[in-house]
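Appendix B. Chain record.
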Amino acid sequence: MHAYAMDRQPRITRDDLAGLAPVAVPQSIPAPGRVWTALDWDLIQLGHKSADMDDRWHTYVEGRRLYIHRSWTGLGIYEAEFSPVPDGWQITAAIVEGDRSSYRRQDDDYESALLEALIDGVLLSSYDGPGHQRLARFRNERGIP
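Structure tokens predicted for this chain:
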């Protein structure tokens, strides 16, 4: 997204998203080892509001913390704390919903890869970057479609 367009897009806040529930049973997962650029962080901070039923995610940022919720239910699924590093921004702590009655959690490494892929796809509109490649490897290894 061009910087000019980014300036004109309103930032999504918690108040823009109805019926949100926090992560009920937070469980730590490994933070992706990736560094996002300053421009990536600017785009991540804009957040995302689901446009239709096929769009499964709502996201917003408060401070340096990214919140990711299912759009249909409003349930919190991921949270990720970002911190500045010399080349950009990196996740320093991440959690996933651990209540298996509301989210079918996979193992820690898979959830870390899915978090990275969601950031790439939902917030950065990139479906062939490192997050999706990493997730595809996990799915292939485990026979997950």
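Further analysis of this model is presented in Appendix C.
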